[in-house]
Specification:
45% of the residues lie in helices and 19% in strands. The protein is of the alpha/beta class.
């Protein structure tokens, strides 16, 4: 897989919801890192798709993440993989992007199934290791290994932001450097 290209990327945020996120291992750090990534991607004008699993039961996207995202319309899902929801697949196709930056919870369920089906459908998938989580760290780590073995790139939020910029003269470099410090 080659370097990620800004003009071909879309962020997909999976189920970062009020009744789910607090149950994750190291939830506070996860939330802070997700916010940093989202803020950086917004500076780079990367489009975003947000899913919510059974919103009635699990609540909306956590306020801090929602604030970082800005205006968005969450895509309701009841399947574990976002690819199982026609509204999601339609919205993704409408972006015209073939590279998916994937974050969210839980890694070993919804993130993993979405990643594997995205790859199967021909998308280049980048799972952001420090922006995914499960209740148990063992599930998180095992899932990341499985996705990597399937050819999905597992990387970090800081790595992906700098790769998207490509150099210190890129638009947004100073603002993004301030976010990651």
């Amino acid at each position: 897989m080659s370097l990620i290209k800004k003009e071909d990327a879309v962020l997909v945020a999976i189920d970062l919801q009020t009744k789910l996120l607090p149950a994750m291992a190291d939830a506070r750090n996860l939330q802070e890192t997700v916010v940093k990534l989202v803020e950086g991607l917004r500076i780079l004008n990367i489009p975003v798709l947000v899913t919510q699993q059974y919103t009635k039961g699990l609540g909306p996207t956590v306020p801090e993440v929602a604030e970082a995202l800005g205006a968005f319309s969450p895509i309701e899902k009841i399947t574990f993989s976002a690819m199982g929801e026609p509204d999601f697949t339609r919205a993704l196709a409408e972006t015209g992007k073939k590279t998916v930056i994937l974050i969210g919870i839980e890694t070993h369920i919804c993130v993993q199934q979405t990643a594997l089906q995205l790859a199967e459908a021909g998308y280049n998938v980048y799972v952001i290791q420090d922006c995914v989580a499960s209740r148990k760290e063992q599930d998180n780590l095992c899932s990341q290994q499985r996705m990597a073995a399937a050819g999905i790139t597992v990387t970090t939020y800081e790595s992906i932001l700098y790769e998207l910029m490509g150099g210190a003269k890129a638009d947004g470099f100073k603002a993004i450097s301030a976010i990651v410090k």
